[in-house]
Design goal:
Elements (H helix, E strand, L loop, with lengths): L3 H26 L8 E14 L9 E13 L8 E12 L9 E11 L1 H4 L4 H9 L24 E7 L5 E2 L12 E10 L5 E2 L14 E2 L17 H7 L6 E3 L5
Parallel strand pairs: 1-9
Antiparallel strand pairs: 1-2, 1-10, 2-5, 2-6, 3-4, 3-7, 7-8
């Protein structure tokens, strides 16, 4: 007859085996759920400024601010095994020397939580919901339906003339005059169980998962840094910041 310790070990071993098999099934089940992400990304404006992009920068250098429009539908990336999606926009431009790979810099990113991540259901939250008294709603202060903000579903992104979260800098310290730059949307799906999945470009289909439709801007040129009517040396000597150069997208 087995002792109590041996029985506990057998039960725990059986539990971990069942949990491991269930986790594998959960991770594989999402492969049959179709994914059809789509996005429209357009450039609004580019400004090139010469100065210190960060307070800890040791010297002045050129850096660019890029405004953009983003209309993305990533709702198909959310399923019952999705915890959150990390999305970002990358600016890609050619290197200074042909032998080097293209330079890339992230100008915007966001973490999009699933509904289960926003409102987690745990024994503690369920207990508080059952035991806490209902909240009283003040009808006089309740906003009308027209004034209430309508929350978008997880995965819907609507940005118009959005400011970048990060400016672009280059190791050479110069960005003005760079040609053939593009913006591209990317993401990383973080599941509750299973492996991380990354961006699949247009045409990179895998089973029922379709590649991103769109999500890339038209090629544009980063303008040259210009100062109108004043010599650049005089501007530096006066201590005033140089005027930013602006550009519009150029269709290639």
């Amino acid at each position: 007859m087995h002792s109590a310790l041996v029985r506990v070990q057998n039960v725990f071993g059986f539990f971990t085996t069942v949990a491991f098999c269930a986790a594998i099934l959960v991770a594989l089940s999402v492969t049959v759920i179709p994914q059809t992400p789509s996005a429209s990304l357009e450039l609004r404006n580019v400004q090139v400024v010469k100065g210190r992009p960060h307070y800890h920068s040791p010297k002045k250098e050129e850096y660019a601010h890029i405004r953009f429009d983003l209309d993305a539908d990533l709702t198909s990336l959310f399923n019952w095994n999705t915890k959150q999606v990390f999305a970002w926009i990358t600016a890609t431009y050619p290197p200074n020397t042909p032998s080097e790979p293209p330079s890339q810099a992230i100008i915007w990113d966001a973490i999009i939580n699933s509904e289960a991540q926003k409102n987690p259901s745990t024994p503690f939250t369920l207990y508080s919901m059952l035991t806490s008294p209902p909240k009283k709603v003040n009808k006089a202060r309740r906003p009308s339906k027209s004034k209430q903000e309508v929350e978008l579903a997880p995965g819907l992104i609507r940005l118009k003339n959005s400011k970048p979260k990060y400016q672009i800098t280059d190791i050479s310290g110069k960005l003005s005059g760079t040609t053939n730059a593009t913006l591209e949307l990317g993401w990383n799906v973080q599941p509750w169980v299973g492996a991380l999945t990354w961006t699949m470009g247009e045409g990179g289909d895998w089973g029922r998962w379709k590649g991103l439709e769109g999500g890339r801007s038209k090629a544009f040129d980063i303008p040259a840094l210009k100062v109108k009517g004043v010599n650049s040396e005089a501007v530096k000597g006066s201590g005033k910041p140089e005027k930013a150069a602006e550009a519009s997208p150029i269709v290639k």
